[in-house]
Amino acid sequence: MLRSNFISFLLLxxxxxxxxxxxxxxxxYLILMTFYTDSFTFQQLDQGSNIxxxxxxxxxxxxxxxxxxxxRKVKNYLKKFEYS
Length: 84
What we know:
Keywords: Membrane, Transmembrane, Transmembrane helix. The protein is mainly alpha-helical. The protein has helices spanning about 1-35, 40-45, 50-80.
C-alpha cells in the first residue's frame, strides 16, 4: 500500500513538473544573467527587453518537448515498480 502511494506521488510529481519548472527556469536564468552582469533582477527581466522573456519561454518549450518524449517511458517505468 505504501509503495503504491509513493508511486502515485511520483507520477503526480512528474506530471506537475511541467508547471513547477517555469519558476525554476526563471530562477536559474536570473542566476546566469547575474553571473554575466553585475546585477540582474527579476524586475529587469519582467520590464526589460523581450529577448530575455523569449529565452525563458524557449527553454520552457524545450523542457516540455523533452518531457513529452520521456513521459511514456517514465510512466511505464513507475508502473512496473507499482506492480512488482
